[in-house]
């Protein structure tokens, strides 16, 4: 009786083993598709908020530079007394330091604001797409190689710009 049931037991075990192997392969390969990358530079530069902040920064930069330039031209006048020139020179040095500080602080603060917004939108994007991991690449060695099929830069850029616009 055991000899008669042995082929049935072997067949059942074989079918269970095949299903188990198929399940393991499916699980392994489906998870590998959840890792993607983006080009951080393209994402940052293409983000509408970056472009807006850059325009605003250029306006402030140009305004402060115009003030410096006019002060410099004033210092160059030959009809100024030594004392007036000295006062203007001190004012120029102070304005120049303020200008340099503005450039450093503005760029850093605005970059931080932009990346905070991009990161927030990227989290939403990842949840919407059911992505487990998005790696940012700055083309400086962070990601040595990535197949173009896992590059979601354009898709994420479109998403963050729509979110930024309130769409």
TrEMBL record:
SUPFAM superfamilies for the chain: OmpH-like
Keywords: Membrane, Signal, Transmembrane, Transmembrane helix
A UniProt-annotated Pfam family: OmpH
Superkingdom as given in the UniProt entry: Bacteria
Transmembrane segments: 6-29
Entry keyword annotation includes Transmembrane helix: yes
Similarity comment: Belongs to the Skp family.
Protein name, as recorded: OmpH family outer membrane protein
Organism, as annotated: Flavobacterium jumunjinense
């Amino acid at each position: 009786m055991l000899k008669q049931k042995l082929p049935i037991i072997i067949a059942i075990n074989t079918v269970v083993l095949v299903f188990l192997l198929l399940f393991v392969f499916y699980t392994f390969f489906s998870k590998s598709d959840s890792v993607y990358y983006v080009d951080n530079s393209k994402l940052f530069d293409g983000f509408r908020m970056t472009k807006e902040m850059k325009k605003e920064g250029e306006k402030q930069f140009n305004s402060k530079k115009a003030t410096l330039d006019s002060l410099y031209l004033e210092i160059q006048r030959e009809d100024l007394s030594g004392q007036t020139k000295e006062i203007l020179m001190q004012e120029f040095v102070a304005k120049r330091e303020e200008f340099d500080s503005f450039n450093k602080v503005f760029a850093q603060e605005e970059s931080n604001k932009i990346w905070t917004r991009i990161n927030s939108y990227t989290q939403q994007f990842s949840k919407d797409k059911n992505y487990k991991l998005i790696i940012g690449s700055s083309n400086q060695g962070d990601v040595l190689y990535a197949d173009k099929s896992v590059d979601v830069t354009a898709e994420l850029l479109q998403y963050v710009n729509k979110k930024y616009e309130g769409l």
